[in-house]
Structure formats: structure tokens, C-alpha cells
Amino acid sequence: MTSTRGIGGRLIITKAVASLPYAELNEILLAVRSFDAFTPDNDPWGEHDCAVLTPA
Questions:
Q1: pLDDT score, position 3
Q2: Contacts of residue 43, Cβ cutoff 8 Å, sequence gap at least 6
Q3: Domain total for the chain?
Q4: pLDDT digit string, tens, across residues 27-39
Q5: Where in the sequence is the domain holding 14, given as residue range(s)?
Q6: Which of 52, 2, 10, 9 is nearest to 28 (CA)?
């Protein structure tokens, strides 16, 4: 089971992302935290550690 509570591990954010307005940064973090559609194609090693975000 993948933890989505933000406890443990490490969160790394670029300066550009960190400088976004709070509401936009929060939206990004919520999207990353809630993502659970991992497949062998997008997560071949089962590490759940990479993402590509596209604007809605």
C-alpha cells in the first residue's frame, strides 16, 4: 500500500515550482499525492517515484 500522507521519504521541489502561488502549488501537490494509476508502462520498477504533470 502506498502512503499518501506525506510521512517519511523525501519531497524534492524545484525552485520554479516552489515559487508558484500557494493555491497553485497546493493543487500540484494534491495531484501528485493522490495519483494512484501506476502501471507497468509508467512505473516499470514499481518505485512510484516519477511523474509528468500537464496543465488541466
A1: 58
A2: 50
A3: 1
A4: 988 888 888 888 9
A5: 1-56
A6: 52
